[in-house]
Write a structure and sequence with these properties.
With 222 residues, this protein is α+β, with helices and mostly antiparallel strands. It is built from 2 helices and 12 strands; from the N terminus they run H-E-E-E-E-E-E-E-E-E-H-E-E-E.
Length: 222
C-alpha cells in the first residue's frame, strides 16, 4: 500500500518566500519615552559642565587677584611706596606733583648717606611727610655761611642748586647727634628743613627716593 504525502499548500505563482518582506514590529512606547528623555537630558548636562568650568575659572581668578592684593600690600608696607611731591622745596631736582618710587627696604640694610634724597616724617608732626636731601650724618659738623654749606669744614658739592635758588643765611656750626641726620631742600631759599626745625631721627626716615616716574619725559633714577 502506498502512502500519499499530504498535498502541500500551493503558492501563488511568481511569489518567492525569501523575497517576502518581514512583518513590521510596532515600537515599544516605553523605549520611545526613554530615548526622548536622553535627548532632553543631553543639553542640560553640557550646561552643568560649562557652569562647573566657569566656576573653577572664577575661583582661579579670585585666588590670583587676592594673591596680587596681598603681594601689593606687602610691597607697599615693607618694600616700596609711591609718593607725590607737593611744593617746590626740592626744586629744580623735584618739581611740584612729580611722582616718585620710594625704596623702603634699603635702609634696613644700610644707613642714609650724604646727598641721598629721602622721604621722612616731619619731626614736629609725624602725620606729615617731607622729601629732603641728606646733608650731614651723625657725628658730622655742619655749618652754613652766607648760604654756603660746609660739612666737617669741607664745602658741600651742590651744583644741583642754581644761583637763584641759593639762600644767604648762616647756621651753626653744630655737631649732629648720634642717630640723627641734617637735611635740606634743594630750593635753599624756599625750604623748611633742619635749619628751622632741627635734626631728623633715623627712625623717621621712611626710605630713599629711588625713581621719578612721572612726568615720563623727566623720569630718572636717583
Amino acid at each position: 500500500m502506498r502512502l500519499e504525502e499530504p498535498a502541500s499548500e500551493d503558492l501563488a505563482p511568481g511569489l518567492d518566500t525569501a523575497a517576502m518582506p518581514a512583518a513590521s514590529v510596532p515600537a515599544d512606547p516605553a523605549l520611545q519615552l526613554t530615548d526622548a528623555a536622553v535627548a532632553a537630558e543631553a543639553p542640560g548636562s553640557r550646561a552643568l559642565v560649562l557652569l562647573g568650568q566657569l566656576r573653577y575659572e572664577l575661583i582661579a581668578w579670585f585666588k590670583t587677584l587676592a594673591s596680587a592684593a596681598v603681594y601689593a600690600t606687602l610691597i607697599v608696607t615693607f618694600g616700596f611706596q609711591v609718593a607725590r611731591v607737593e611744593g617746590m622745596s626740592m626744586a629744580p631736582t623735584l618739581e611740584d606733583q612729580d611722582r616718585l618710587i620710594v625704596n623702603k627696604l634699603i635702609y634696613r640694610f644700610e644707613s642714609p648717606r650724604r646727598s641721598d634724597i629721602v622721604m621722612l616724617y616731619y619731626p614736629l608732626d609725624p602725620d606729615k611727610s617731607f622729601v629732603k636731601r641728606v646733608i650731614g650724618e651723625e657725628g658730622d659738623t655742619v655749618r652754613v655761611v652766607d648760604g654756603r654749606v660746609y660739612v666737617n669744614d669741607v664745602p658741600v658739592p651742590d651744583d644741583y642748586v642754581p644761583s637763584e635758588y641759593r639762600s644767604h643765611d648762616d647756621w651753626g656750626p653744630q655737631v649732629i647727634p648720634e642717630g640723627y641726620y641734617f637735611v635740606m631742600g634743594d630750593h635753599r631759599n624756599n625750604s623748611s628743613d633742619s635749619r628751622h626745625w632741627g635734626y631728623v631721627p633715623k627712625k623717621y626716615i621712611i626710605g630713599k627716593v629711588q625713581l621719578r616716574w612721572w612726568p615720563i619725559p623727566t623720569a630718572r633714577v636717583f
